[in-house]
Fold:
Amino acid sequence: MYIVRSPSIGRLFDGVSALLGLSQVASFEGEAAMALEFSAESEMENIHPQPYRIPLELQSESQGPWVADWRPLISAIVRDISEQKRPSEIALGLHHALAMLIADVAERIQCPQIVLSGGVFQNALLLKLSESELTKRGFTVYTPQLFGQNDGGLSLGQAFIIMNQFAK
Structure:
């Protein structure tokens, strides 16, 4: 068995979108993620799914990093496809699972203030669900206001962290 590691949730969206038959071939970056988001949004009024769970484990016995294991998620999605659950229901479950994962990571790192930025948060549904889950767990959530909600925000955050490390 091959294990593919990727720090990109976008690749997860690509794979799940393909499994659900929503976007087999993307003609632009984010097309598969958009198909999943639109499918999930169509389900918002109908049900409140039991979200999938994504295990979060330390990569080693030491200080980290924390690693999300997508394998149980993909297995559950494949099972639900074989049970003929609606793609929109599965897509919504995926969005909820990612929002819960984001809040789980925030709890593990024990940072009371969380900034949600990066290309994945151009997905308005994921942003809304993540903000809701984080707020419910007592976190203060920030989103970009003076710069775009894309990967430029990640670069700005990384620069801020480095600047603070050198200031010490």
The first strand starts at residue 56 and ends at 58. The longest helix spans residues 87-109. The radius of gyration is 17 Å. The chain has a mean pLDDT of 85.
